[in-house]
Sequence to fold (163 residues):
Amino acid sequence: MTTRRHLILGAAASAAALTSGIFHRRAAAAVESFEVSYTDAQWRARLSPQQYAVLRQEGTERPGSSPLNTEHRTGTFSCAGCALPLFASSTKFDSGTGWPSFWKPLDNAVATRQDRSYGMVRVEVHCRRCGGHLGHVFDDGPPPTGLRYCINGLSLSFTQKPA
Fold:
């Protein structure tokens, strides 16, 4: 039987989850096989707790929290989990969303799958080599693709191109 106390506690738990800074979902990639694969303990040892929450548990960082939002040098954005190059800096743009955004990934870098979490249908983007959750892709981006790859900065590393 649901009581008023259950409703209040449920609402409080939901509010705490939404304000914690990183939202979590169960990893859908757990049953898939990837070229780079580690045990859960090995992933935890390789990644910061925040990176683990995003890459391995499909979390989302707080908007505006990534230093990569303001990264404008020439270079490559790679997977923080396996170092696979994912996006060229020439495809990065300011979407105003609070997350690093790109209009095109590098060839053979990412894969997608349907994400039905949170009562909506979206397209999740993950690293094709390690399965790490990167973010989502939307069809409201700039030309020439019209796509917006909205990517968690915690899932990326940046390497500047030598001058």
In short: Residues 22-160 form a domain with the Metal Binding Protein, Guanine Nucleotide Exchange Factor; Chain A fold (CATH 2.170.150.20). Residues 5 and 11 are 10 Å apart (CA to CA). The first strand starts at residue 75 and ends at 79. Helices lie at 4-19, 40-46, 49-55.
